[in-house]
Design brief:
about 110 residues, mainly alpha, two-stranded parallel ribbon, 2 strands, about 60% helix
């Protein structure tokens, strides 16, 4: 575990690092190229949402494919991989639904304040 030195501390801001490229968010020592595309302030909000929805969709498709593969050829896939894929798909769908519901609620609140 890396500890922050006194020179790296300033106020209440702390720079987070991602040590594993599979982890979500933050900045990565491993992939500096992804940092500029994922967290750039110039990125369009619509593009970010579309990318997030596409990623959730890909997780759902991957989960379905692994489930079908488990049914048709059980020896070719590990049950743990199927379980993990289904859990990831479920979590991504739940988070996507929560974000959409929250955005719709905010929009309705803005409209109703006129």
């Amino acid at each position: 575990m890396d500890y922050l030195s006194v020179r790296e501390l300033s106020g209440d801001a702390v720079r987070l690092t991602r040590t594993d490229p599979r982890h979500l968010g933050g900045f990565s020592k491993v992939s500096e190229a992804n940092r500029t595309t994922a967290a750039s302030p110039e990125a369009d909000f619509g593009e970010l949402l579309a990318r997030a929805f596409n990623q959730a969709n890909e997780l759902q498709h991957n989960s379905m494919e692994l489930g079908q593969q488990l049914i048709t050829d059980p020896e070719s896939v590990d049950i743990h991989d199927v379980t993990i894929a289904m859990a990831e798909a479920n979590l991504s769908l739940s988070m996507t639904k929560a974000i959409v519901d929250r955005a719709l609620r905010a929009y309705k609140e803005i409209i109703s304040t006129r």
